[in-house]
Design brief:
single chain, 94 residues, mainly alpha, 4 helices
């Protein structure tokens, strides 16, 4: 049996990927210890589907972080609040 890297995903590998995908969130937030970080990085280096999911997670996280630090212009904020109040009135009256 060859000891080269196997890029096919058997049942065991899928379960392994699920485990790594759960840790990716902590990996992105730098909340893993050094050994776990190294293990996740090694997995990402050898598993393209997980790397794609990691890149997507990281992108979404950075977009959300950027969105949370931006402030809506006051006129937009007023229009949104007005719409919300109108919807609340409709819900209360029905």
């Amino acid at each position: 049996m060859s000891h080269g890297q196997d890029h096919t995903h058997g049942e065991m590998s899928k379960e392994e990927c699920v485990d790594y995908l759960e840790r990716i969130v902590y990996f992105i937030d730098n909340e893993l210890d050094e050994a776990d970080c190294a293990a996740v990085q090694l997995h990402l280096d050898t598993c393209n589907p997980c790397l794609v999911k990691y890149d997507l997670q990281r992108t979404v996280k950075s977009v959300v972080a950027r969105s949370c630090s931006e402030t809506a212009p006051s006129d937009l904020r007023e229009r949104v609040l007005f719409k919300l109040r109108a919807v609340q009135v409709q819900i209360t009256e029905s």
